[in-house]
Amino acid sequence: MDDVPARPRGPDAGSLGAIIAAFKSETTKRINRLNGVTGHRLWQPGYYERAIRQQGGEYGRIAQYIAENPAKWR
Fold this sequence. Notes:
The protein is mainly alpha-helical. The protein has a domain at 16-37 and 45-73. It is 42% helix and 0% strand. The protein has helices at 16-35, 58-68.
């Protein structure tokens, strides 16, 4: 038999990544159903999780980015 690479498993069940993936999937299905469409993407692909630390000003920098970023979507 040929060596077939394993399929990606996705995030571990119950992890933050799995919770985010489920939320994005369900909200996409519901919004598409309400709009009478199928297959429309609503979310940016990918997800990167990491702990935000208060040391070294990281928390303030990230909080500012979150607060200001929606204005850049227009």
